[in-house]
Design goal:
6 helices; globular; mainly alpha; DinB/YfiT-like; single chain
């Protein structure tokens, strides 16, 4: 059983191997975003702070996209899943952020939770079939393919950056503060 803190976040291993440590810190970041977005109604998830239009609901949808983009699209070379497959990204580069205002809290949480679950499964499969050194099936225009290790580090960085934003947004909604 995983040891959880008072906000439901797991403690990453303090002396684990590289894989356990990377996955542990990714799970902490995911759980922190869930905590910061939890218990809010639609107005709370749509609240923003000037001068940005960033919202917690947009953040949930954006992180759903980022999860799917790196673990499904890059790592496994899969085509985009719904709802990403029908987006005109040229018309709205920030569609994930902007369209979240049209979604209910239940839809946003379900999208993010479903994507995270799919990502966990894909990472588990990748670890079993090649470990952290496994290269993504997609490559950048310069021909470089990131390793699973790089993707995990990138995801931790992406979450950590947005969890910092989430702290400010959540405090502005109802005063909730904390790491």
């Amino acid at each position: 059983m995983t040891d959880l803190d008072e906000h439901g976040r797991p403690h990453p291993p303090s002396a684990g191997d590289e894989t356990a440590t990377l996955l542990g810190f990714l799970e902490v970041q995911r759980a922190t975003l869930a905590w910061k977005c939890g218990g809010l109604d639609a107005a709370g998830l749509r609240a923003s702070l000037t001068p940005t239009s960033m919202t917690l609901g947009g953040m949930l949808k954006h992180m759903s996209y980022v999860e799917d983009h790196w673990f499904s699209h890059w790592l496994y070379g899969q085509d985009p899943q719904p709802p990403w497959d029908s987006v005109d990204w040229k018309a709205d580069r920030d569609w994930d952020w902007n369209s979240a205002a049209e979604d209910t809290p239940e839809q946003l949480h379900a999208l993010w939770q479903g994507t995270v679950a799919r990502s966990r499964t894909l990472v588990e499969q990748a670890l079993a079939n090649g470990g952290l050194d496994q290269l993504a099936r997609r490559s950048s225009p310069d021909g470089q393919s990131p390793s699973l290790r790089w993707i995990l580090f990138h995801m931790i960085e992406e979450y950590a950056r947005h969890v910092g934003h989430a702290d400010l947004l959540r405090e502005s909604v109802d005063g909730l503060t904390g790491e």
